[in-house]
Amino acid sequence: MERERRWMVVTRGVVFVHSAPAAICPHVEWAISSVTGGRVSLSWTAQPAAPGSLRADVSWAGRPGTGGRLANALKAWPMLRFEVTEEPSAGVDGERICHVPGRGVWRAAISANGDVMVGEDQLRLLITSATNLDAAQHRLAELLGTHIDAELEPYRRAGDGTAVTWLHQVG
After folding, report:
1. Banded pLDDT at 3 (limits 50, 70, 90)
2. What does the alpha-carbon distance between residue 108 and residue 95 come to, in Å, rounded to a whole number?
3. Largest Cα–Cα distance in the chain?
4. CB-CB neighbours of 130 under 10 Å
């Protein structure tokens, strides 16, 4: 009974592949398929912010933690620029996980309205370790993902108006 109840908890999110070399696109689909358990075929379009690369979006619904599993599968290709979101669900914070080539993975808890949530331990460490105001501001910007957002924004805008594919009930 308890096992069945856990399966009923569903959340949803989106995988944004902001830029990928064409040769990697089938691998991206296979990686997502390995998490979802079903065949995934994305609708790839040109990425104007990175000529020669492609972009795709896919929305998903599944168990909490699916977003993390999707991001983990995608980070195998360091040349990908991607963002995975997972909405909050019963007892679980939402999260946003981003990867930018050369910067690695950035991950943060997200509130119901989409704000990055910074934990009290993170703030305590920031306050106790900052040697000056500039260092504190820099660390806060890192926690909020300011540098990642600045780098991803041109890729996000370039994808405005494209169709989004839905994956149904990923396990």
Report:
1. low
2. 6
3. 54
4. 15
